[in-house]
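Suppose you are handed a protein chain with no further information: no name, no annotation, nothing but its sequence. What can you learn? This example shows the usual starting point.
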Amino acid sequence: MDLAPMALGDPTRVGSIVRAIHDASAERMSFHAAIGVDIKGEVWSCVEIPESAEFFGTGKSVRVDAVVDDVRLENVGAMVTGTGGHMISLSAKVRKALGKDIGDTVDVAITRR
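A reasonable first move is to predict its three-dimensional structure. Written in structure tokens, the prediction is:
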């Protein structure tokens, strides 16, 4: 209550900042997932991205940047799962860097490209 009233352009500036924060957060999602996606009876060393079709706006493969625990994966393909979702593959090299394997849980952050 001790602050001076906003200047004429301040509400617009504040609105622009809020919109920029919203847009930035809409491009990124974080989640926890177990390594391992069942594809036609085989378990693949992937993590499934929850609610991905809504997030990406498509059921087709897309390119993303990902951080899995502390390992950065840049410009990787988020492949379709066959059940309407997407997944990213974790190669043996990545799993070794993580110190994790199928069945272990990881923290994942996905950013649309």
